[in-house]
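Researcher: Good morning. I'm working through a list of sequences from a screen, and I'd like to move beyond sequence-only analysis. For each chain I'm collecting a predicted structure so we can compare shapes side by side. This is the next one on the list. No need for commentary yet; just the structure.
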Amino acid sequence: MTTEKLIDLRQISSQDLAMLGMTDVAYVRSKTKDGVTVFAIHSADGAEVAIVPTYEAAIATILQNDLEPVTLQ
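Model: Good morning. Structure tokens for this chain:
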């Protein structure tokens, strides 16, 4: 990475920083709905965008939409 690129990253605004990854990644969180465990797909900002019945379906949905599934720690 060049010094010029590092300078650009250090001067990024809070809003631009928050938008990093918004169109690139998604994560999955399990939850209970009507007594059944389902899997919610969330965008990088935490917004729930879909609910699917299995973890495998969640990952497949993320990949089909050209997103990268990420793991939360």
